[in-house]
Write a structure and sequence with these properties.
The complex is a heterotrimer of chains A (355), B (258) and C (71). Chain A is an alpha/beta fold. Chain A has helices at 9-19, 35-42, 45-48, 59-71, 82-97, 124-128, 146-163, 173-177, 218-238, 258-273, 291-298, 314-322, 341-353, and strands at 3-8, 24-27, 52-55, 76-80, 102-108, 139-141, 166-172, 179-184, 210-211, 242-245, 252-255, 278-283, 285-287, 303-308, 328-332. Chain B has a single domain (27-252), classed as 3-Layer(aba) Sandwich (Rossmann fold), CATH 3.40.50.970. Chain B contains 11 helices and 10 strands. Chain B has helices at 2-5, 31-46, 80-90, 102-108, 110-119, 159-162, 168-173, 189-206, 222-225, 229-243, 253-257, and strands at residues 11-13, 52-56, 71-74, 95-101, 124-129, 132-133, 139-140, 178-185, 212-218, 247-250. A 7-stranded mixed sheet of chain B has the order 3-2-4-5-9-8-10, with helices on both faces. Chain B has a two-stranded antiparallel ribbon with strand order 6-7. The chains are: A alpha/beta (355), B alpha/beta (258), C alpha+beta (71). The interface between A and B is large, with 40 and 35 residues.
Chain lengths: 355, 258, 71
């Protein structure tokens, strides 16, 4: 039975986590994502599903609590916004290194520094290119709607456990704060799995289980890195997700992710009304990036405008993807400013058509 | 005559089966090995090997998980109490301990330590305090004594510029969340016996869900103190114990009433 | 009369720290002039005065001493 509700992005995401059978949430308040922990606390999750919700003393503590719970094979997640995600990077690197599954939600706000509490997409590099130290990758999902915030929460846990890898949901202050109609999936049971990699108490007759990211021998560490890289190639092969609009006959292309893709879609429609054959490609996974989709389209394109609420981050991946086959320009508003379709269209006409 | 005694029925002490056969990487005479050993013995005596999850720190004991034959997680520097919180909250029926040095617990992990204790997490925190950063080569620790030389306080710790050594154990004893707080040592047979009793009590208390048990072990660092092991133990008695006096700091409420 | 005891020392794991020497009430232990494979002078028994009190074993950081005592 369909359950439809009007919900705020952050709250919908929290509800989805409960329904996805999450075992534990550890977080720390920060605008614009505090509704996640507020919703979970108010939901009395311990009574409802047995899910643990704990307000930690810091983002650092929260991500390390996630490490501990994830190391026991549990479905653990945390959420924060940009400055808090910076604090979590140490823990995220350790989680990636120890190959633990978990979900991290970043409701992005403008930076650098304390920045602004307004929406932004300026954490693309941090999410996609690393964030913490060492060669590792997060699987990064970028919802553009409240519905996708719900659906991706379920997907994020699935991918995290499929690959034993941290998954980031990169939302932003728009998606997190706005209300939309959502269809909620039915409550899934909390699992009682017994993973051989999880520390759940030593099994008689078997060696004890160690969760660690430490290798003192360089050759051993290199083996770990090779194993991680092989995993990332699998992720790149299997998990690319994107959405295309009007790309079949497109001579030009817009690309954007998350909330800026919603606004850019309107700009695309306005251009189409003017008779310009332009499409939109929206990456839903920022890592793995839909490089092949861009590459395959590039031959028919006279140019791509990459619209982001930052000073130009995803554009680097778009340029790498098309490998010089077509021109790629950037349009961005940042610092918490949200672009409007008119200025996107104007930038497109100036930079791509007239450029 | 002596040969006759070496028979199973005469056995009175052997290495605990909870200790793996790996040779410990610690320097000769380092108290870490003894602290490991008695914790392993306690886990064995309580019969909780399969119900125990340990958390190793960053520091000299970063490889503690090589030596305990129990499930363990290796935490980031200072974060062991947060990691242990995550474990205990999702596995409340397990025995969870952290094993941390003074740099890990009393400097970089101060917030995690204080707040885990303040929440009264039902975990055991084993705090090995030797007043120095051993693994990185003898730098000043938050617990380095006043006037004590280290590679980053080469003329001795100066209160004016470096502050005073922090008494974490007294500090956490102030928090309502702690149930049993004690300071022990492992350099002499009598101390080892007492410290082992303290660890045993602390793990037994964990079943009561009454709060955090915190066992400090004042220890030595012969290599970085630049002394022989025996000298370092004497120096510890003369210099560390006056500032870090041994004994129970907070006893369980019920036991106080008796 | 004190009971008799005996010890077995895993000399290859011994690091020669001498903490056991200081703990032995009957001066049973000394460092060997020989070294083990790691190059440490290891602990050896030098007389038959052992009572099996276990002091040496329980202060040994490397758990190299096993103790026996007559019943």
């Amino acid at each position: 039975m369909k359950e439809l509700r009007l919900m705020k992005g952050n709250e919908a995401l929290a509800e989805a986590a409960i329904r996805a059978g999450a075992d534990a949430y550890f977080g720390y308040p920060i605008t614009p994502q505090s509704e996640v922990i507020e919703y979970l606390m108010a939901a009395r999750t311990e009574d409802r599903t047995g899910m643990i919700v704990l307000q930690a003393e810091s983002e650092i503590a929260a991500i390390n609590m996630v490490y501990g719970a994830a190391g026991c094979g549990k479905r653990a997640f945390t959420s924060s916004s940009s400055p808090g995600i910076s604090l979590k990077q140490e823990g995220i690197s350790y989680i990636a290194g120890a190959e633990l599954p978990c979900v991290i939600v970043n409701v992005v706000r403008g930076g650098p520094g304390l920045g602004t509490i307004q929406p932004s997409q300026s954490d693309y590099f941090q999410s996609v290119k690393g964030g913490g130290h060492g060669d590792y990758k997060l699987i990064v999902l970028a919802p553009a709607t409240v519905q996708e915030s719900v659906d991706y929460m379920k997907l994020a846990f699935e991918l995290a456990f499929k690959y034993r890898n941290p998954v980031m949901i990169q939302s932003d202050g728009i998606i997190g704060q706005m209300m939309e109609k959502v269809e909620l999936f039915e409550q899934m049971p909390r699992l009682e799995p017994d993973y051989e990699w999880a520390t759940t108490g030593k099994k008689p007759g078997k060696p004890s289980t160690i969760v660690t990211s430490l290798q003192l021998e360089s050759e051993e560490q290199e083996k770990v890195n090779h194993r991680l890289q092989a995993k990332y190639r699998e992720v790149e092969k299997n998990e690319v997700r994107y959405e295309q609009f009007h790309c079949e006959d497109a001579e030009y292309l817009f690309t954007a992710f998350g909330s800026s893709a919603r606004i850019t879609r309107k700009a695309m429609e306005m251009a189409r009304e003017k008779g310009i054959k332009v499409g939109l490609l929206r990456p839903q996974t920022l890592y793995p990036f839909p490089s092949k989709a861009f590459y395959d389209l590039a031959d028919q394109l006279k140019g791509i405008l990459c619209v982001e609420m930052n000073a130009g981050q995803m554009i680097e991946d778009v340029r790498l993807s098309v490998n010089g086959k077509t021109r790629v320009e950037h349009f961005g508003r940042f610092g918490g400013v949200i672009p409007n379709p008119d200025e996107i269209l104007k930038a497109f006409e100036q930079k791509i058509i007239g450029g | 005559m002596a040969e006759n005694l070496i028979k199973p029925e005469n056995l009175v002490y052997k290495k605990s089966g909870i200790m793996t056969d790996r040779v410990l990487h610690y320097c000769p005479g380092c108290g870490h090995g003894t602290a490991h050993r008695i914790l392993a013995e306690v886990i064995e005596e309580l019969g909780i090997q399969n119900e125990t999850i340990g958390v190793a720190p960053v520091g000299c004991s970063v490889l503690a998980y090589y030596y305990f034959d129990v499930d363990m997680q290796e935490a980031a520097h200072g974060r062991a109490p947060a990691v242990a919180t995550g474990i205990k909250r999702v596995m409340p029926e397990k025995y969870v301990f952290t094993y941390q040095g003074d740099g890990d617990l009393a400097a970089i992990g101060t917030a995690e330590t204080i707040h885990a204790c303040n929440r009264g997490e039902n975990i055991l925190i084993v705090f090995v305090n030797n007043g120095i950063y051993g693994m990185t080569g003898g730098q000043m620790a938050p617990t380095t004594l006043i006037g004590m030389k280290s590679s980053t306080s080469p003329f001795g710790r100066d209160i004016k510029t470096m502050g005073s050594p922090i008494k974490m154990t007294e500090l956490v004893a102030q928090l309502p969340g702690t149930y049993y707080v004690t300071r022990q040592a492992v350099h002499k047979p009598a101390n080892v016996r007492k410290a082992k009793k303290a660890l045993k009590k602390a793990l037994e208390y964990q079943k009561l869900n009454k709060g955090t048990c915190f066992v400090e072990i004042v220890s030595n660092c012969p290599s970085n103190w630049k002394m022989t092991p025996v000298q370092s133990n004497e120096w510890m008695e003369e210099n560390m114990f006056p500032y870090y006096p041994l004994g129970d700091i907070k006893l369980p409420q019920d036991e106080n009433k008796k | 009369m004190a009971k008799h005891g005996d010890i077995v020392i895993d000399i290859e794991r011994c690091k020669g720290c001498e903490v056991c020497l200081a703990a032995c009430p009957h001066s049973v232990l000394a460092l060997s002039p020989e070294v083990n494979k790691k190059g440490y002078h290891y602990t050896v028994k030098v007389n038959e005065d052992c009572t099996g009190c276990t002091n040496c074993a329980i202060v040994c950081p490397d758990a190299v001493i096993t103790v026996y005592r007559e019943k």
